[in-house]
Amino acid sequence: MLTPLPYPMGLLIQVAIYTVALLLAAGAGALLHRAWRGRILDWAPTCARCGFDLRVRSGDLPRECPECGRPLVGSVIAGPRRHSVGGMIAGILLLAIAISLVTGNLLGVPTRVNEWLLSRRTLMSIERPLRNEDPRAWRFATDRVRLGRAHSEEIGWLLDFVIDRARRNRQWMPSDEFLIGSLAASASAPEDLAARILDAVLELPGAVRLSASIDEVAPGRPVGIIAHANTVLQAIRVPVDLRITAVTLEDGTPLPLLVPDHTPEGDPVWRRMMNSTVVNAPSTSGEHSVRMRVLLRLGDPDSSLAVDADSTRPSNRGDDATPPGRGTIERAIEGAVTIRVGSRSP
Fold first, then answer.
1. What is the CA 27 to chain-centroid distance, rounded?
2. How far apart are the first and last CA of the chain?
3. Residue 278 sits in which domain range?
4. What CA–CA distance (Å, rounded) separates 215 from 208?
5. Of 116, 131, 166, which residue sits at a domain end?
6. Using an 8 Å Cβ cutoff, are 234 and 266 in contact?
7. Cβ-based neighbours of 274, under 8 Å, separated by 6 or more
8. What is the pLDDT of residues 198-234, one digit of tens each?
9. Contacts of 116 (CB under 8 A, 6+ apart)
10. Has residue 129 been placed in a domain?
């Protein structure tokens, strides 16, 4: 059972609670009524209002009660009676239980009990709902990590699970970026988290998306080429630097970079998820496949503390500052983009 409860399960629990409460309340009412009437001690005729014993009257019963004056037609009962104290106590207890069930349901006690039960479980115990893409299971796992309630073993297992799921699906799911950000912000995050996520990103399609700035360009005219890194890398919370280092034609002819390493002014280096350059288009018309070499670097290149180049410690502060002592992880990526060269300028 996962929190929050699914709507059908929550509705079923509420209906069951209200049904039990109604039955208990009905039973309590019957007990109280019977206990209040009491047990008949003698079958002597008695006034229903005041309990006056009419046996002392000789002959036929009078029309009215000598004690309270109430007409006795239809008001004579067998008596006297004794109230049942035990029955009244039992009825009050049943009524209290019914009221407690209704009050607890209104205050969300089933959900809180469910949350408590889940707090006793590990993330590994909900592997099946996670594999079945149950959104409640993923929400529970993300909240456990985000609130700092997951220990290092659970975080390591969840990181392996997320990477394995992305490799099976050949893509990153929308929830992965937020979950990886929560893992990176955790105090128990693995030291090789950045390197493992980077390698997993490079194994899948779309690690770096390449595109031309315009659909068609005149021969020999400048054209911009843009590279976008997968946004999952930004969730690692380490500096990201993307650079286009070389552009060549299919035959290997290099295209000089007219505006190398062009990054929007004021863009922090740790957010450099995009890079663009300008080259001259081929001189012949048609579609040309242009090969590109992109350098993707994670970490702070100006760090004063040297760390292992194959691992990067993620930030636990959650702010935009770049802490010192990161080291760097570099990967070279090759890709292609199609440039359509026409007879006239667009």
1. 42
2. 60
3. 208-341
4. 19
5. 116
6. no
7. 226, 227, 228, 229, 242, 263
8. 889 988 888 888 999 888 999 889 999 998 888 888 8
9. none
10. yes
